[in-house]
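INTERNAL AUDIT FORM
Audit reference: QA-55
Scope: verify that the stored structure record matches its stored sequence.
Auditor: D.O.
Record contents follow.
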Amino acid sequence: MRRIVVLGGSGFVGRAVCERLVERSPGGRVTVPTRRLPHANAIRHLPTVEPVSCDVHDEAALARVLAGHDAVINLVAILHGSARDFERVHVALPQRIVQACRAAGVPRLLHVSALGVAHDAPSLYLRSKAAGEDALKRGGLALTIFRPSVIFGEDDSFMNLFARLQALAPLVPLGGGDARMQPVWVEDVAGALVAALDRPESVGQTYECAGPQVYTLSELVRLAGRFSGHERPQIPLPGALARLQALAMEMLPGTPLLSRDNLRSLEVPNVASGQLPGLPALGIRPTALEAVVPRYLGADRGRARLERWRRAARRG
C-alpha cells in the first residue's frame, strides 16, 4: 500500500504518522486533507506528503480526495465539546468515511479510538468513541482499530500542559488525581499504525496501545513538574470541588484545560485490559515515559531551550 490518506494528519499524532509513512515508502504518496492549508505547514516539507484543501465532513469532497488511494488512516478526534460536537466528530464522521471509502473504492481503513470506550461509559467522549467504532465495524471495510492510552511526545498537550501550569502556579489543585493511566509514546502509536498497513493479519483486530507502566494522574503531574524543574505541591480536590473547578474552566474563553466530561472519563482506568493484542503484536516494544519526557520538558532541552535563546536575543 503506497497511497495513503491521513485524516487529522496535521495534528500531534498525525505529524508522527506522516513521518513514519515517508520513511516506510519514500516513493509512496501521503495525502492530508485539511480545511485550512496553513494548519499543515508542519508537514508540508516532508517529501511525498501533499496537504489538500478539503472539509472532511463533506462526504462528496472526501470521496474525491480518497479516489486513487489504497488506505485511509483516521486520527480525527476531540476531547472537549457538546453532545452534538462528539456525535459529529466521533460518530457521524466515521460513517461518512465509510461511505466515502466505498464511493472511492478504498478497501482499507485504520482508525484511532481510545482505551476505556463503552456504550455505558460515564463520559460523552468515551460513549461517542464506542459508537464510532460500531459504525466502522458495520461498514464492511478491511478495518483495524487502535485504542491508545494518553499519548505523550514533544508537542503533546498533556505533560507539557502540567509542566506549564507548575511553572506559573505555586500550587496545583487537582481533581481525579487517583485516576490510572498507561501513557504511550506518540512514536510507538505511529509505528503501530504504519506496521499494521503491512500486516494482513491486523485486519479485523483491535489493538490496545499502552506504555510499559501504569501511573496515577497525580504521579504524572509530579513527574511533569520534576522534569521541567517546577515541581509544585498538589492539593487533592474532592469530587464536588473538582466538578466546580471544571465548570469554571468551561466558562472561560477558548478551549478548557479540563471539562466535567474529562473528569467523568477519568472514572474509567485508562489502562490496557490485557484481553486484546497490544503493541508487541505489531513488533513494537513500548517506550518508557522516563526515557522520553525529560528530553523535551527539561529547562535546557527541546523547545524550552529555543525559547530561552529567543528571550536572550530580545534582551540584546
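Auditor finding: record pair retrieved intact. Residues 3-153+183-211+270-287 form a domain with the Rossmann fold fold (CATH 3.40.50.720).
Action required: none
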